[in-house]
Structure formats: structure tokens, C-alpha cells
Amino acid sequence: MDKVINCFSKRPDAVARLICFPWAGGGSIHYARWGKILTSIEVFAVKLPGREARAKEPFFQSMEQIVDEVINVLLPVLKEKPFALFGHSFGAMTSFAIADTLKRVHKLEPIHIFLSGASAPYSEMRIQAPKRSDLSDEEFLQWMTRIGGTPPEILANPDVVKLFLPSLKADLHVVENYRCDRPESPLLSCPVTCFDGKQDMPHDLQAWKDISSGDFTVQMLPGAHFYLKEAANEKVILDYITKYLEMAEIDYL
């Protein structure tokens, strides 16, 4: 469990667990921090190979590898209490892939799925998006500068770039090669909430409606692709998650 999950604050009496998936190239610390803020919710932040304590492990090459590892680790504890999923960008795709397999194979379903900064994987906007993992390092850094969220001094430091660029490109390779068909009927019944930055590139958020028969909500917040790193936006997101998971716990009981 500790190899794959980072949990800063164990909360055996929590009303629910929030399982968080990193953005491309990201680690677990950003979300693990949330566990110290959300006093009624236990936060599990997923650690992928090729970074943090798993830096010496080879990167995963497919979404199936991520799904298999995470589900194998989490399955024994998922029935202990209600759980929700959160993912930003690449993490949104991973959250959906996990939810899809949990429902189809194991008949388990989150009480809420929170998706941020990404089009649905089957949407035309996503399918037609250019592949970034094939860019040269120079072109890739230019793209990163445009989307924001990474301090310019980091992008200008070749030694630091060498550390994070491989994991970022590896994750983008995974998500760019992840394909699934638009559901003919809703797979899930839980509520779905999409967050996005108002100044980010457009995403087809409405396409996520098709994954569930539950309530569908879109929350647009100020900022570009990494709007969720802003303290004010993070507070909005965490207050929203707390409100809906605490309400869902009442329904679950």
C-alpha cells in the first residue's frame, strides 16, 4: 500500500476516502497535503513509478498498467467506506479509467467523481488534440511555458528539466494512447463534477455527462491550466468536495 499510496493523515473515522491521481509528470505530495486540511475525509494520493520514492522504477507505458496496479492495491480497502475520485488533466483520465474498471469488473462505484482540466477521452476535441509527447525537448518546453503552472526559472534550468521532463513525457504518452468509446449508456450512477480554469485551453467538459446518470455539474474557476494550485481556487475545490462527500455519506448510510 505505502509503495503506491501516500496518506499524510490516517483518519479511521473519516466519512469517506478521496483517492487523488496526479497530473502528467506529477507526484503525490500536492494531494497528500489535502489530507491535513480535510478533517472529515481521508486522502489517498497515488504515487506512480518513475518519481518520488519510486524514481528508480520504469515508467508505465499504458493506462492498463496504472489501472491494474492501483486497483490491486486499493481493492481490499475500497469496501471499508465510501470513496470518491479526483484527478486533474492526465489524472482525470486515470480517474475515469479506474472508475470504469471498478464498475465493470468489480461492481464497485465511487460516491462522486471529480474531474479537472480535461476533455472526456472519447470526445472529438480530445481525439483531435495534437500529441505533445512526440515533440522535441525544446518544443515541449515552449508548450509548457504557454500553458503556465511551472515557474520560468525551473524551465530555464537544464538540470532540473532533465529530472522532470522524462516523467511528464511518459505520462503524456500513456494518456495520448489511451482510447475508449463513448458509453452507449451511463456506466456510473454517482454525481460527476468537472472543474476547469477559465483561461485554460477549451475542454469538452460536457462530454463527461455520458459516463453517469447522476447529477452533472461544471465549476469554472479563474486561472489557466494549473488554476488548482492557486490558494483561493484550492479552497473552493476543497470546500466543495467536503460539502458533497459529507452529504453523500448521509445518503450512503
Automatic annotation (TrEMBL):
Top-level taxon of the source organism: Eukaryota
InterPro entries: AB_hydrolase_fold (IPR029058), TEII (IPR012223), Thioesterase (IPR001031)
EC code(s) of this entry: 3.1.2.14
Thioesterase domain ranges (all copies): 17-239
A Pfam match: Thioesterase
GO biological process, one term: medium-chain fatty acid biosynthetic process
Record keyword Hydrolase present: yes
Signal sequence bounds: none
GO molecular function: fatty acyl-[ACP] hydrolase activity
Swiss-Prot/TrEMBL keywords: Fatty acid biosynthesis, Fatty acid metabolism, Hydrolase, Lipid biosynthesis, Lipid metabolism
Catalytic function, reaction form: (9Z)-octadecenoyl-[ACP] + H2O = (9Z)-octadecenoate + holo-[ACP] + H(+)
PANTHER family in the record: S-ACYL FATTY ACID SYNTHASE THIOESTERASE, MEDIUM CHAIN (PTHR11487:SF0), THIOESTERASE (PTHR11487)
Family stated for the protein in its record: Belongs to the thioesterase family.
Name of this protein: S-acyl fatty acid synthase thioesterase, medium chain
Organism of this sequence: Hucho hucho
